[in-house]
Structures are given as C-alpha cells and as structure tokens.
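Run: sequence + glyoxylic acid -> complex structure.
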Amino acid sequence: MDGMWADLLPVGRDGATGGYRRHAWTPADLACREWFAAEAARRGLDLVVDRNGNQWAWWGDPDADGPGVVAGSHLDSVPDGGAYDGPLGVVSAFAALDRLRDRGLVPGRPLAVASFTDEEGARFGIACAGSRLLTGALDADRARNLTDSDGTTLADAMRSAGHDPTHLGRDDETLRRVGTLVELHVEQGRALVDVGAPVGVASTIWPHGRWLLDLAGEANHAGTTRLEDRDDPMLRLAAAVLAAREAAIEHGAVATIGRVAVAPNGTNAIPSRVRAWLDARGAVEADVRAVVAEVAAAAAVDAVEESWTAEVAFDATLRDRLTGLLGGVPVLATAAGHDAGILAAAGVEAAMLFVRNPTGVSHSPAEHAEVDDCHAGVDALATVLAHLTAARP
Ligand code: GLV
Ligand code: MN
Ligand code: MN
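>> structure
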C-alpha cells in the first residue's frame, strides 16, 4: 500500500497548497490513468478501458464467468482537493486484492478494481460523469458538448487525451460484468469519529444537485457610473449567497455557492455577467427544491438545473450482510455523491464502506485518514470481497 501511495501522491499536486488538481482528461488525470494501468499490469490483471473512459482491472474473465465483483472509486479531484477522496478507494481495492492473493484465495467469481472517470465534475460540471454515461443517466450528446472554463468541449478534451468520444453512452456490455460494486471511501464527516469506529457502511445518499444562476448586467465604469444608473449583477449574486444560507437553515438542508465566473472580472468595471453555481442537498427532495426556488427568487433569475441525483438507498440486504460480516460496524447516511450511488440507482447491487476521517474535512488539502484506519479499511474490504467472491451468485 505504501508504494502505491508514494507513486500516486505527487501526481497533480499543487506545490503551494498541497491540494490536488486532477481534472478529467488533463495531464494529471492521464498520469493517474497510467498509474492505474501500471498497478493492473504489475498484478497481471486484464485492463479494460470502457467506451466512457472508466478503467477496470479484472482478475478472471467477467464475460465467461461473471458477473463479477468490483471494488473501486475514482482518481480525479475537486480543485485543490484532498489526497483520499477517491484514491483511497482505488488503492484499498488493489491492496485488498493483494491480501486475498497472499492468503491463496481462489475467487469463485471474477474480481475487478475500477476507477471511474470524472467523478467530481470539476472541469465539465457534471459529477460522476463516467458512471452516469455508463448507465445512461447522462446523455452522450450532452456530455460531448459540455465545456470547461476555457471553452474546450469534453469531446475535444477526450480526443486530445487519446480517447475516442464517438461511442460514449450507456454500455450494457460493461454493466453486465458488474454483479456487485463495493466502493470504499474516506468519510466526509465526523460520524465515525463520534462513535469511535474506523470503518462504517453506507445506508443512503441524500438527494442533491447543481444549478446555474446566469446573471446578466451592464458593464460600465466603476468610478463614473452613478449608483442609481447601475445594473450590477454582483448585487444579485450577493442576494443569492445570503438566500442560500437562510433557505438551507429554514429547510434543514445545505446549500453552497462555491464557484463563480465574473465577466470581465476587472476591479474598476461593473460586471456585465456573473455566473454562479449552486450546490444544494438535503435529506428530503422537496426541501432541496424549496431552497433552490428561494435562491432563484432572491437572485431574480431562473436556476438552470445542470444535474440532479435522487435519493439513493443502498441495497438493504447487502448492507445488513456486510455490516454483520464486519462485526456490527456503524451504518451511516451521506450527503456526498458517489459512483456507487449512480450504479445503485441503475439497478446494480452496490454498497459502500467509509473510513474514519479524524477532522471530517474533505474537498480540501486538509482531508485526512490515519494509516491504521486505512489498513482497517483494507481489512474490511478484503473480508467483504472474500465473502462476495466465494461463490457464483
Ligand atoms: C462528490 O464528492 C460530491 O460533490 O458529492
Ligand atoms: Mn468528492
Ligand atoms: Mn469521491
């Protein structure tokens, strides 16, 4: 495990902040993909890159002997992200597979390690793009035409990175191979700290989504334009930010405006346009929708939905089986989106394991998991994988 981390840790790391910028189809992302391919090759696993760019490293033949069991997560990051969100699940999956081999286990079903493409949506705006494309939850044409902040389309970015975007979209051949998916992930909260447990199992994912507020104004001089003559969209952004907090409190939800694009972005110019992205989540869909409506009203603009993920309830039978197998570990809901949730919503049997995060901080360079807890996660994942691959379903 140490060697895998040592190779992966410098990739896409910002020297100034210590955070990661591993955005889809950038050189840092490609280096992560090469890392994955090298780990697969080192173990003699069969590397498959599916039509949507997701990577799979198979031990056994999922077409002849499947469906198989898959463990994995993602390697991309948010802007200035932590080291563990995503990579912990992929590194732990390889380490758990090694552990099974060291024990001489011969699985009764094929077993794979997976890395899903563009889980964070940091560059093109849609989270879990690889798994949404795989299941058909994201339309292929829409995906190809998504643009990054420089105006590069996803299709062009993929092409430049050597991946043909022509065949994006629902991929039944790949889905058929996946009998069960288990995603191990660093916890993005303090629930496991509070109960003093290194590992937990997921119950549900809150409904959540992303909306664009596109605020038009009139560019003008910051000094010579009288206040009453201004059409300044920044004021409507300010109203939206405050409304997001107030509405979230009122409806028991969370809401964040963490990304804005200001044009022309000059100190001495009133903006001509402000675009802001609202992230809203809650235990109850109606509450999330109410928050979005109140923010849109405060900004006097339509909130354009860029993505929506309904509540995910992980398979209760599998969840209870894994919880028992791991000695009655805690069961937690999460407000973070995950590829396992996307596959679960598409009818794939899926489960998640969480590893304790001492501060609960995530999507930040301060994200952390202690080494002993990472080992406990690998132990738990190996136990789960040994159980799930013991016999054909
Ligand atoms: C994924 O990390 C999310 O934003 O929920
Ligand atoms: Mn994340
Ligand atoms: Mn993640």
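>> summary
The CA atoms of residues 198 and 376 lie 7 Å apart. The domain at 208-309 is CATH 3.30.70.360 (Alpha-Beta Plaits).
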